[in-house]
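Entry 12.
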Amino acid sequence: MENNEIAKGTPVVCVEITEYVPNAILSKTIIKKLTGNVTVTAVDAGEETAEKTSPFDVFVQIIDGEAKLQLKEKEINLVLGEGILIPAHSRHSFNADQKFKMMCTIFKSGYED
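Predicted 3D structure (tokens):
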């Protein structure tokens, strides 16, 4: 990858973009544009992301393992291949009963209306 972005026109295996690190959460931004970003994150078993909100919609897809998403006051189990659109300004966090990887796409456009 050049400049931490994936090469245009070259296939990649998304699940291999980042590796699991014991007792850690590792993220790698693979596309960074003014209109949005794509990030792949590996979360080791037992780890939990900090609760946060985004001013933009975020689409998350599980590309390895399973994750628990806390979205507002609701817990949602996500399995391999499942995705969910997290609405802008929604409190959310992820918990790893087992290790998992996810791809997150942030949409910074479409809010002009």
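Annotation: The CA atoms of residues 42 and 101 lie 4 Å apart. The chain has a mean pLDDT of 92.
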